[in-house]
Amino acid sequence: MSTIKEVSRLAGVSISTVSRVLNDTVPVADETKRRVLNAVQKLDYQPNAFARGLVTNRSGGVGVTVNDLSSPYFGTLLKGVEEVIEEAGMHLIVASGHAKAETERRAVEFLKQRRTDALIIHSEELPDADLLNWAKGDIPILVIGRYIAELAKSCVYLDNETGGRLATRHLLEKGHRRIAHITGPLSIHDSRERLVGYRRALEEAGLNYEEDFVVEADFMEAGGQIATKRLLERKLDFSAIFVANDQMAVGVLQTLREAGLRVPEDISLVGFDDVLLARYLYPALTTIRQPLFEMGQAAAKLALAALDGKEMGVRRKFEPELIVRKSVTSIR
Amino acid sequence: MSTIKEVSRLAGVSISTVSRVLNDTVPVADETKRRVLNAVQKLDYQPNAFARGLVTNRSGGVGVTVNDLSSPYFGTLLKGVEEVIEEAGMHLIVASGHAKAETERRAVEFLKQRRTDALIIHSEELPDADLLNWAKGDIPILVIGRYIAELAKSCVYLDNETGGRLATRHLLEKGHRRIAHITGPLSIHDSRERLVGYRRALEEAGLNYEEDFVVEADFMEAGGQIATKRLLERKLDFSAIFVANDQMAVGVLQTLREAGLRVPEDISLVGFDDVLLARYLYPALTTIRQPLFEMGQAAAKLALAALDGKEMGVRRKFEPELIVRKSVTSIR
DNA sequence: ATCACCTATGAAAACCTTTTCATAAAAAGT
DNA sequence: ACTTTTTATGAAAAGGTTTTCATAGGTGAT
Questions:
Q1: Cα gap B159→A109, rounded to integer Å
Q2: Mean pLDDT of chain A
Q3: Which strand (E) or helix (H) includes residue A83?
Q4: How far is CA A252 from the centre of its chain?
Q5: Which CATH number describes the domain made up of B59-156+293-316?
């Protein structure tokens, strides 16, 4: 691997000049530039990223943490991030938090130590305090898929309340009156907001909110199964369930089927996220779409803006959209 | 951000000693060690990765390229890679090649310039020559999901021929005789092997291989649709299709349905990959499972081994497995 | 023709580690 | 008690860039 020194020697100039040509910082005589470029090509020279980072204090990397690398949520999000990061000539460093507070914390610390220029955090378990704490440091932090009031300018998130309302209202419009709700972990802001939306929609329809109809779960497929069993045990005679994410909806679907209930004939279902899967489930899942790709892009743009010290006019709050498929039926 | 110098001053020792304590290279007196560790903690010192890289010439990063970050294939693979990479205290740098030869090449060059310690390449479009060329360089290259004879020791791949045979044989066992096959791009070794497996199975059953029954496609959902249309136009009266990956199978399913054909009643279908999706399709897709997670792990282990100059006894050729679901019916 | 001012370039410092080499002190051997 | 070996530590070099400061040569103005 050749160094700048070798290039300078071959081109017959000083290393400073080589650096100047390569970074285009200061005008260099055309003839000199030509010679340098020639030498660079001949030696297949590539600047040493370490040396460069040492002096510029920039790694050119953006760190991303995510819960579970294999979750369908992740891919789309990451794709959005990558698109804009790559365009800016930077790269992506990923670490998984495995949906545990402790490992999520480790993942972030890890990336911080790696001197990533910015950090995009998708975390479900970490308490707000941790995020707040990191945000005080000197590396820009972006939070995705979560809203933290004190970090409002760095959060890219969905209007979850509207999402919850949309889902519930859709069921109401189809004639459902006894609507259950399986929430995500209520420690998470998003879950709470979706619940609020559910409640609001009920109230708007003049219906009472009843605690029995709500079960807290964990956003995972297995959690959906457990929650459904709990719900069934209560014998509430509900005709529909609003499930706080698609992944749980998969579990719900299974458990319902095992219990001899058909979807949507016996029970209607609305999910949340519109993960790739939702479209292919049987029956295809009616759900609330989160524009994950766009949100990924937004987070990346904000990260870039923060690096330049600019404030960019990037949208941070995204609106959910009802995607009607086959898992809801009209009753009466 | 504090430096080693500040730590050394606070601890009242030289920077060499601090380095030694931190890297545990050479014994240091307990008392000194204590003082250093104290100072480190007090200053929240974190070694500068650039400076360290500059001298050790190690970045601690492993580069991974994939076709499409949002593909379901990717997540599982990456999860496997991450698990072992993270355990080794290293990190993951990802770049997407967007399934185009030119961008794939760019992605790899990009990672190389970033001085990743090793490179795990999942590429579909790149010609063997490129891979071979990079492999000559000084950074270890691992190829995943593809077999290149000259790089045999660095390839983690599936026994695709057996996979193709398994799929076809399953259909034969269910009584199918007129079996079509939608292949991946035949420029790719894996696609060719699956085709060979298909052919072999037919031969073993004493059936003739007929070119009309085979259509080449591109591994994408849309490609599956186009291929299916072509197949239908030929009016071959086939009763089953072996599709070379699940993603195309989704497109096939749609097109078949649009043409008024039911799966599996009218046409049986076998996919390949056993991507997360397959399980949730309607009807649930019978497919050939690729142990992607395990393959990701293997690639990462090989990368680590290459870094240590060791040859590890890691399995490189993986066996596919038939996963029977609901997309195949018996006939006659 | 002389002077002031650009312009292009080079020399050297700075960035922060790891690691080699040297040395002082302590331990072991005679 | 004296020499030799071991152990713990420090000083300094090396690693490859970017960037500041200095300087030589050239350009334009008077």
A1: 40
A2: 92
A3: helix A72-87
A4: 23
A5: 3.40.50.2300
B73 to chain A, any CB pair closer than 8 A? The answer is: no
* Residue B297 pLDDT exceeds 90: yes
Q: Do domains A4-47 and A58-158+295-319 have the same CATH topology?
A: no
Contact A111 B94 (CB under 8 A): no
Residue B14 C-alpha, separation from nearest chain A C-alpha, in angstroms: 21
**CA A281, A284, A286: angle at the middle one, nearest 5?**
125
User: pLDDT of B224-258, one tens digit each?
Assistant: 999 999 999 999 999 999 999 999 999 999 999 99
Best to test chain A binding among B45, B83, B94 (most A CBs inside 10 Å): B94
Examine the pLDDT at B52 and tell me if it is beyond 80. yes
Chain C bases having any atom below 7 Å from a protein CB = 7-12, 14-20
pLDDT of residue B114: 82
Checking if the pLDDT of A192 tops 90, the result is: yes
Give CA–CA dist B95/A19, Å, rounded.
27
Mean pLDDT to the nearest integer, A68-82: 86
Given 3.40.50.2300, 1.10.10.10, 3.30.499.10, 3.90.1800.10, which CATH number is that of A58-158+295-319? 3.40.50.2300
Whether B11 shows a pLDDT value over 90: the answer reads yes
- The answer to whether B136 contacts chain A (CB < 8 Å) is no
Closest partner residue to A280 (CB to CB) among B78, B277, B293 is B277
pLDDT (tens digit per residue) in A123-148: 878 888 999 999 988 889 999 988 88
Partners of B44 on chain A (C-beta within 8 Å) are: none
Nucleotide nearest to A26 (CA to C1'): C8
Q: What's the gap in Å between the CA of B77 and the closest CA on chain A?
A: 8
Interchain contact A25–B (C-beta under 8 A): no
- Residue with nearest Cα to nucleotide C15 C1': A55
Return all residues near A28 (Cβ < 8 A) that are at least 6 apart: A17, A20, A21, A36
Residues of B in Cβ contact (< 8 Å) with A100: none
Q: Which residues contact A176 (CB under 8 A, 6 or more apart)?
A: A239, A240, A268, A331
CB contact under 8 A, A75 and B76: no
State whether residue B262 sits within 8 Å of chain A by CB. no
Summarize the confidence of residues A110-133 as an average pLDDT.
88
Nearest-angstrom CA–CA distance, A85 and A75: 15
B102 and A CB contact within 8 Å: no
Facing residues of B62 across strands? Answer: B92, B118
Give the right CATH number for A160-291 from 3.40.50.720, 3.40.50.2000, 3.40.50.2300, 3.40.1110.10.
3.40.50.2300
Nucleotide nearest to B55 (CA to C1'): D15
Query: End-to-end alpha-carbon separation of chain A, Å?
Result: 75
The domain spans of chain B are: 4-47, 59-156+293-316, 160-290
CATH architecture of B4-47: Orthogonal Bundle (1.10)
- Looking at residue B113, its pLDDT comes to 82
The fold of B160-290 is Rossmann fold (3.40.50)
B51 in contact with nucleic chain D (CB within 7 A): yes
Mean pLDDT of all residues belonging to chain B = 92
B271-295 pLDDT, tens digit per residue, is: 999 988 898 888 899 999 999 999 9
The shortest C-alpha distance from A210 to chain B (Å) reads: 32
Kindly calculate the radius of gyration of chain B based on its CA atoms and give it in whole angstroms: 25
Residue A89 binned pLDDT confidence (cut-offs 50, 70, 90): confident
